[in-house]
Structure to design on (354 residues):
């Protein structure tokens, strides 16, 4: 029986565009028949992985997501005393372990993989070591046995343990995600707006009129609901049973989701929000999100307070119908009570006790 750690957050964003669609506008969704602003789960996970809380608290235990394995290996191997042709041949053979390489364009030597691959720190070291053996002319096994010299189940990489990995060419080394991240949506109707702007040429003569540049950008504003679910047992399993590292990962996640945001157009809008409300729950019961609280959108101000009320009502109603879906909880409510440190401790203890 698994232990689940669930987070429900409400965060207010002023005018901003943290996650853009293909036209540069804030991503949107129709929910309950009403237009909402949206941030994709991919953008949120990217922001978490790049946050200072992950980088500092989990230093040395983070993977690398890249198509440029070949180029990185060439750079590392070039520091050794070896011929360039041998270096490139060895890098190509090892890089192909993680996935197929694209055919280089005419006149180019660099090659990239066809798909992004998550690589753990241990796998980088093993890949470099294997390439060195190839350059030295050592006899090596073929195909699948060769892969086993490099590929692991990424046990030391927290972000891979959390968000999973798929290697299309060899499913044996895939990793199921222990952390599920929902798309964040506004709790109330919201639509993108357009900002028309101009820039003045500093050397423009005083008697001349007109702007040196005209442009437009899109933005939106609202209170977002974010849901995150952690399978604590799977997180520990994905980290080769290292319960302390899994707990540190849960603590870093708790800090990051309350204070981290996708960074689209951040220089233009300076959006640095912190969660107004964080509800953390733990228990062996089947997880459930509370997005249903906002299918009927919040329509009256104050939007933050009314969103908290709607969330609490949906939680109580679901528990009344299905039974309590948690055995312990912890709440941060700005202006009411609770602290982020308490939520972080709660998250770590939930994983340690799993």
């Amino acid at each position: 029986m698994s232990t689940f750690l669930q987070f429900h957050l409400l965060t207010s964003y002023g005018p901003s565009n943290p996650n853009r669609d293909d036209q540069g506008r804030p991503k949107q969704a129709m929910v309950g028949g009403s237009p909402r602003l949206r941030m994709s789960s991919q953008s949120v996970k990217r922001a978490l992985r790049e946050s200072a809380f992950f980088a500092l608290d989990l230093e040395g235990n983070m993977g690398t997501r890249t198509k440029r394995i070949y180029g990185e290996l060439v750079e590392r191997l070039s520091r050794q005393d070896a011929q360039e042709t041998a270096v490139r041949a060895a890098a190509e053979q090892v890089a192909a372990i993680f996935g197929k390489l694209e055919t280089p364009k005419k006149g180019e030597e660099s090659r990239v993989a066809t798909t992004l691959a998550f690589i753990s720190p241990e796998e980088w070291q093993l890949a470099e070591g294997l390439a060195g053996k190839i350059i030295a002319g050592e006899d090596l096994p073929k195909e699948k046995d060769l892969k086993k010299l490099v590929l692991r189940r990424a046990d030391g990489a927290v972000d891979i343990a959390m968000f999973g990995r798929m290697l299309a060419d060899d499913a044996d080394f895939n990793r199921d995600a222990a952390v599920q991240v929902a798309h964040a949506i506004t709790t109330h109707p919201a639509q993108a707006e357009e900002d028309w702007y101009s820039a003045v040429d500093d050397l423009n003569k005083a008697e001349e009129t007109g702007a040196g540049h005209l442009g437009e950008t899109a933005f939106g504003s609202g209170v977002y609901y974010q849901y995150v679910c952690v399978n604590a047992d799977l997180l520990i399993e994905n980290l080769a049973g290292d319960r302390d590292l899994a707990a540190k990962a849960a603590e870093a996640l708790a800090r990051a989701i309350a204070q981290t945001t996708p960074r689209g157009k951040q220089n233009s809008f300076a959006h640095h929000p912190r969660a107004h409300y964080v509800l953390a729950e733990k228990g062996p019961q089947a997880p459930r999100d509370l997005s249903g609280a906002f299918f009927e959108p919040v329509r009256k101000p104050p939007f933050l307070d009314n969103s908290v009320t709607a969330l609490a009502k949906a939680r109580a109603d679901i528990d009344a119908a299905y039974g309590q879906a948690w055995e312990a909880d912890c709440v941060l409510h700005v202006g009411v009570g609770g602290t982020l440190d308490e939520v972080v401790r709660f998250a770590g203890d939930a994983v340690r006790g799993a």
Summary: Residues 303-322 form the longest helix (20 residues). The chain has two domains: 4-58+177-187+221-353, 65-153.
